[in-house]
Amino acid sequence: MSDGAVNEASDEAEDNGTTNSRRYFLIQATSAVAAVGAVGAAWPFVKYWTPSAKAKAAGAPVRVDISKLAPGEMLSPIVAWRGKPIFVVYRDQASIDALTTDVSGLADPDSANPEMQPEFAVNPWRSERPEIGIYLGICTHLGCSPKHVVTDNFEESGQGGFFCPCHGSKFDLAGRVVSGVPAPDNLEVPPYRFESDTVIVIG
Ligand code: FES
Questions:
Q1: Would the pTM of this model clear 0.85, i.e. be above it?
Q2: What phi and psi values does residue 126 have, to the nearest 5 degrees?
Q3: How many CB atoms lie within 10 A of CB 131?
C-alpha cells in the first residue's frame, strides 16, 4: 500500500472514531435530557399524590389520655379526629349491665350494620373494653351533635345515653339508636386501639 493510501485509511479510521464518540455523546445527552424531562413532567403528579403536611395532620391518628376520666363521665373537652367530635365515655358497672339486658327498645341492638363499627366492637357495649365507649359524636340522621345525658330517664334503663336536640333521636350509652326516632343507625365507632391502660389511639 502506498503512503497516500495508508494516510487515507488512517484518516478514515480517525473520522469513524470521532463519529462514534459524537454519536455516543449525543445518545448519552439525549437520554439525560429525556430523563430530566420525564421527572419534570411527573413532578406535578407526584406533588399531587403526596398529601400536604396539613392534610396528613388532619387525617392523622389522635392520642387520647383518659387517666382523669371517672366512671359515669364523658371526656371533656371533646377531642376531634378528622374534624369530627369523638365521645369517650367511662361506663360504671350498672351501665355495663344495662347494656346487656335492656335492649328491647333498640333498633339495632346487635350492631348488625357492619358499616357502623369495626368488628371488635360488635358486642353489647360496642367497644373493645366494656367500661370505655368511643363513638363519633355525629347523629346518623342529619349530622347534628348529640348531647351526653347522664341520668335522664329518656330510655328504659335510666342509665343515660345520648340525645340529639335537632329532631329528638336517642341513643343508649353504647351509641345504639332507640327505635322510632329519625336516626336510622347506631352512632359510628371509629377505629382505635389502646396504647396503654390510659392512652387510646384513635384512627
Ligand atoms: S340530626 Fe339528630 S335527630 Fe336529626
A1: no
A2: 50, 50
A3: 15
